[in-house]
Amino acid sequence: MKTTWVATRNARQIKTGYILLIAMLLLDFSCSKNNDLELIEEENAMMSKSANTSPNTVLAWNQVMEDLYTFSLNGPGTPPPSASYTWALVHLAMHDALNGIVPRYETYAGVPRDKDANPDAAVSQAAYDVLMAINQLPFAPAYLPQNFQSINALLAETLDGIPDGEAKNKGIALGHAVAEAIMAKRAGDTPNLAPGVPNQPAEGTQPGEYRYLPYPLAPNGMGYALANFHKLKPFFMVTNDMFRSEPPYETSSPEYAADLNETKDFGALNSQVRSADQTELGVFWAENSSRGWNVVARIVRDSYNEKSQNAWKTARYLALVHSAIADSYISIFESKMYHYFWRPITAIQLADNDGNDATTADPSWVPLLNTPPLGEYPSAHAISGSVAGQVIIRFFDDRDNYELNLDSGYMPGVIRSFSSVSDAVRENSLSRIYIGYHFRLAVDVGEALGKELGDYVYENALKEK
């Protein structure tokens, strides 16, 4: 009997154990299922928030930047490479702020997530804080126009339009954190941002080597502007020399002579062959690339499918365009410093000493516009326009045909029209010949490099999660 009782007891214990185990598994499955449902519901809510969030605040800050960097031809301004640096940081901050709420795309500088933060508050505070941080740089006026009324007004207007409460407070806090993270990531930039004379390269002496230029905006002499800009940490390139160009033509070559004579004829202040339209397009495109190509980016976005571009997509799009422009300047300045090629004003005035019988010196030759004091080859303006155009084309399904009616701060009231982004890119490049800044090879190479860099940035930066 005892044996039977023990066996029965053991059987009951085993049965009870099985029942408890099954109950625990069912409970665990139920909890797991509930947790999964909660996560799915949370994710759906977050995706719905990102899909339905208006891009108006992102676009408002973008428009403030466009207005702030619209300069007249003979008025004060900021150097185009310096402008691109500020534009990139502001737009990356807006992108990161949104993706700190709903992580749809990779961020530039990681920050803690806060799904309950108000997107408009986060975007505005992040953009504003980055601009104020740039204003603390030793060379602030070269990077940010000292006119803060519109910036202050937009921040106040945006925050005043958001109901007080936890979401607004969290959005402001997230914006602060994003800006701090962005600037921390760029903390090593300061030694390389100086626009003036630190660490000037030696003036060249041989045919083709860069010579210091007379420059009205630097009456005491600048030598070489932004001489360390090429050392900046890239935004998305792997290395600064990743897209270094092949060398320019030898000054003794027939190709060089053909390029020099073209710029000598068409780029002179008192050219006898440049048409009125070529003069217009030369000056029209001379403004900073960040402002000029932002106009194109906005038109294309609105023309493609405005309703499909929520805040997240719009912020990523503009961050890619402006980060690519900034990287293009870093890249091309590296090539300029590496090749250290002389400008047309030097080459034409010293043509009797270039070892080429097909060129003739004109010691009095001057270009249509004053040439910036930095190396000629390749063209920074060509690469910055081309990289922007390529990102714009790639972002919207490789579509190129758009009706573009563009304006320019350098020629108020003048509109130039194009049927494609590529046509605008090409005219932007050629404009540098007509103002006497560049030889044709420099603009052709710059434009080609811009397409390569644009593809790289589009395919590798801020990718969808």
From TrEMBL:
PANTHER family: PEROXIDASE-RELATED (PTHR34599), PHOSPHATIDIC ACID PHOSPHATASE TYPE 2_HALOPEROXIDASE DOMAIN-CONTAINING PROTEIN (PTHR34599:SF1). Residues 52-219 form the Vanadium chloroperoxidase N-terminal domain. This is Vanadium chloroperoxidase N-terminal domain-containing protein. Gene3D superfamilies: 1.10.606.20. It holds the Pfam family VCPO_N.
